[in-house]
Amino acid sequence: MPNNTSITAEELKQADQNRITLVDVRGRPDKQQLRGSRRYDPDKLMAAEELDLPLPHDGTIVVYCGHGNSSQAIAQRLRDQGYDNAVSLEGGYEAAKEADLPLEELSQEQPIPGEPDTGIKRI
């Protein structure tokens, strides 16, 4: 990676996928996502007081949005919360599609731990 805050689609394509966690923060996603992505609501990620997400602290977290603008702020927020290897995908989802990165059907949005009405209800 040329710096510690972003990665290009081509660099992502060449990276060891076992050491990468993809985080989709598109506000209005289409019907597909990058293969293996976890989806989070970008507004909830920015609004949460503390982030205790089930994301690795030792691998690279690649955050992407539609075109690469919103993901920069969210990657910074993750770094501020201790996810030191969080980076933004330059050009976002559109750049990834142009680079022919593998896609899959859109997955369900993940809850933010500690958010009201998340987790399994107690009986």
Briefly characterize the structure.
This protein is α/β, with parallel strands linked by helices and 123 residues long.
Write the layout of secondary structure elements.
Blueprint: E1 6-7, H1 9-14, E2 20-24, E3 32-34, E4 38-39, H2 42-47, E5 60-64, H3 70-80, E6 86-89, H4 92-98, E7 103-105
Parallel strand pairs: 1-6, 2-4, 2-5, 5-6
Antiparallel strand pairs: 3-7
Q: What would you note in describing this structure?
A:
The chain is 24% helix and 20% strand. With 123 residues, it is an alpha/beta fold. It has a single domain, classed as 3-Layer(aba) Sandwich (Oxidized Rhodanese, domain 1). Strands 1-6-5-2-4 form a 5-stranded parallel sheet. It starts with 5 loop residues before the first strand and ends in an 18-residue tail after the last strand.
Please state the structural category.
alpha/beta
Structural Rg: 14 Å
Describe the strand arrangement of the main beta sheet, using strand numbers. Answer: 1-6-5-2-4
CATH fold group? Oxidized Rhodanese, domain 1
